[in-house]
Amino acid sequence: MLEGPAGGNPFVEVSLSAEFRKGRRVFVPEGFYDGEGVYKVRFMPDEEGVWRYRTKSNKRELRGVTGEFLCTSARAGNHGPVSVRNRHHFGYADGQAYWPVGTTCYGWALKTAVKKRQTIASLRRSPFNKIRMIVMPFAGSRTRLFPFPGKSREDWDFSRFDPRFFHNYERCLRQLMALGIEADVIFFHPYDKGRYGFDMVPHSVNIRFLRYCIARFGAFRHVWWSIANEFDFLRTRKMSEWDSFGRAIAKHDPYGKLCSIHNGALMYNNQQPWITHASIQNGSAVADFGRARIYRDCFRKPVIYDEVCYEGNLRVRWGNLSGEEMTHRFWQGYIAGTYVGHSESWRKGLKRDSSWLGSGGKLEGKSWRRMGFLRRIMEEGPQEGIGPVDGDDMCVGGIRGRYYVVYFGWEKPGRWKVDLPRGVPDGARCRIDIIDTWDMKVKPVRGVITLKTKGRYHVVGANGEVIRLPRRPFMAIRIRILD
Amino acid sequence: MLEGPAGGNPFVEVSLSAEFRKGRRVFVPEGFYDGEGVYKVRFMPDEEGVWRYRTKSNKRELRGVTGEFLCTSARAGNHGPVSVRNRHHFGYADGQAYWPVGTTCYGWALKTAVKKRQTIASLRRSPFNKIRMIVMPFAGSRTRLFPFPGKSREDWDFSRFDPRFFHNYERCLRQLMALGIEADVIFFHPYDKGRYGFDMVPHSVNIRFLRYCIARFGAFRHVWWSIANEFDFLRTRKMSEWDSFGRAIAKHDPYGKLCSIHNGALMYNNQQPWITHASIQNGSAVADFGRARIYRDCFRKPVIYDEVCYEGNLRVRWGNLSGEEMTHRFWQGYIAGTYVGHSESWRKGLKRDSSWLGSGGKLEGKSWRRMGFLRRIMEEGPQEGIGPVDGDDMCVGGIRGRYYVVYFGWEKPGRWKVDLPRGVPDGARCRIDIIDTWDMKVKPVRGVITLKTKGRYHVVGANGEVIRLPRRPFMAIRIRILD
């Protein structure tokens, strides 16, 4: 925290950054003006020990301020930032695997204090470790705080920011951090609908907004960048502008945090280097077998299906999944080596502001608890993450020769003859569990089963073992190869 | 044709190109040495009228040769080269739509004269208008002609080419041209298996080979470039080399011909600018609904599933599709706005060289005739090509509001209640045909049906019309909106 000029327009007239150094490690995050003559530079060290810093600025009083601090070891529960690991998966900086089990509450940070408390309480009880949330207010957000000074679309001052808006947003971010929930912060969206005109600001203001957000939020270890929600529905922006937002983030974020862009109907080129993982809207991709893995194969990055329609009772089909279907989609994503996002949208009389998706509040669906069960299964599985094990066995995910999950979806089999794709040596032994993904139960099959190759493509039980199943949907089989 | 130096090594010592000019239009194709002191520069003009040329060379006798010729109008049946049209589809230069209905005969051009005649006779009877064929001999190709002078892997002279090899290949290309069949020429492949060592030559030789092929084949209007078959199975090459092959093609092909690279297990980044369309191996992508379109959405280019397993009776699963399944996969591709490739592989005693896939010869499967029927349906449909019309109706392709094909695959419905995705105005009238994709019959439904919107997502018959179907698999419904 530094004191500096409060006059003029510090947001555009004052440049500030600081070089943080420890041995050969150097980070140069930008600082920001926090109002009332106060300037800040935030920094997230990535190594224990003494860090030295020195500020840079075009203003004399902010320039050349030096100091040092000791970065101590992380507190319990702080695993550091999440990054991509093993091409299609994620891990914390301390080495622990991170399994994205996310939900979406676009506007929760813009709501009343009561509603925010309710949301945080819901999240605390929930299995979610990731949340998608919007920065820019949207038509239905009913907020009285705005990122720019002003009261309505007639009088915004786009040359400044309103620090009060960001103070509130950061309080919300800190609450999520305390819960161990990653914040997937969405910069732009197409939901202004003429209300505030925030989707019509000049490109240069958008870039300044991105830099200000990065300077403020970038040092929060749990923050991810989502360039936009349904980017292609924001018809005021060209594809070249989306690319330039991505490049700006890559340039100004000193940490290379996770960064994605969420599509509407048009798929972004997720091979762009500033994109760390594909954030995809496509419910049908996880509604049936063999689809989810294709995005993974095309983009060769982690895939999170951040919008697959929502559990709820709206008339629109994007908001009327049953809890069963929502849970089914999470499992489809899992066996394909991808991840799925949750939300809920409920119709309740005339009050439109009542659903978890837009506002947070209470979780009322049936699926959210089941995500916790899936998260447990993920955590019990291989720490490097699973994926498709064979091109032609669409209902099996795993790691060849080690671990398999066979998932039956809406089918109701009464039995499953032990049958895995090739890749397990003859004589290997395995333990098998029957998983009821809906009742959230794991039932071990007694004993150990020996496997043998059958023909060119199959591995079966040496004695033709058959597992009895209860003729209910949403059953899965977990096979762990021993030795 | 020019005469020039025959001594030394003309393949590396002589550079030759010619500038062809008509008004502001300029092309500068490279020439090539054809042996025995003969040099050639081939050119494919793209406009009628007088073209002037002037050669360039590092050899005095080949330099500054000028001349002109009159490009007359195209002969009947010559529609010019094919290029991408309407993002996901293809068209000839004269404006006619091109519907890829392709087959694969990797090695047919390397076979005996008898076998080649047989292949050409089969193609003449077939509906195929595209063929994938390899340039570099492969382990089982049993050829006595090689692109490099020499007899075995011990004595190839990689600094030269053997024009006789290319003369044969070009005769084959010309025969295809006469049949109106596009030649998808595959430069590299992983099937050498230590036989010739052609997969181990230095990068610079590969680049020279590409340039020589482009100089020789580039002026053939029906030639496409396929950088490799199953590129990732060729483990001697790094990804950066594949990229550099693509860049070399883009640089040396003055016409910007169609160019793709065919994958094994690893998907190439088909967003690279030198890739005009995705050439994909993935049988499961077209084995069921909702998969094929995903590649299309990711790459935003035409998608040709050039390998979806083959009709045949091999023990390996890539070679034992039934004719029904092969045909089914073509239709799955079609309703997704993509295209599928055919081939056949039959086991016949010990003679390994007998299958259409590797050698050509006779078509013996059941599916190839059905591709002709599908091609007729394509040709009767909208000339700009069709695609998925709605995110959630995976069995329907078409153009919203104009044309729909509902395909039932392996299902055996006894009836179909008229039901289309939203996007047809109330009161629109349509004609409906019942298509039996296996029996190759179109049966019009009598009369005209009026449509009306039902709810948010459906358009149905105004009187709840129901179409009776014969409870057989592979049925489709074609709906053409009138007015």
Domain count of chain A: the total is 3
Query: Mind describing the biggest β-sheet of chain A?
Result: 9 strands, antiparallel
The low-confidence parts of chain A are none
CATH class of the largest domain in chain A: Alpha Beta
- Which percent band covers the strand fraction of chain A? 25-35%
Number of helical elements of chain A: 9
Helicity level of chain A: 10-25%
In angstroms, what is the radius of gyration of chain A? 24 Å
Write down the CATH topology of the largest domain in chain A.
TIM Barrel
Structural class of chain A: alpha/beta
Cα(first) to Cα(last) distance of chain A is 56 Å
CATH architecture of the largest domain in chain A: Alpha-Beta Barrel
- The H-level CATH homologous superfamily of the largest domain in chain A, spelled out, is Glycosidases
Mean pLDDT of chain A: 96
Quaternary status of these chains?
homodimer
Largest Cβ-defined interface: A-B, 28 and 28 residues
The tally of strands of chain A reads 31
Question: What overall geometry of chain A do the principal axes of the alpha carbons give?
Answer: globular
Summary tags:
homodimer; 31 strands; alpha/beta; 9 helices; eight-stranded parallel beta sheet; globular; Immunoglobulin-like; nine-stranded antiparallel beta sheet; 483 residues; TIM Barrel; 28% strand
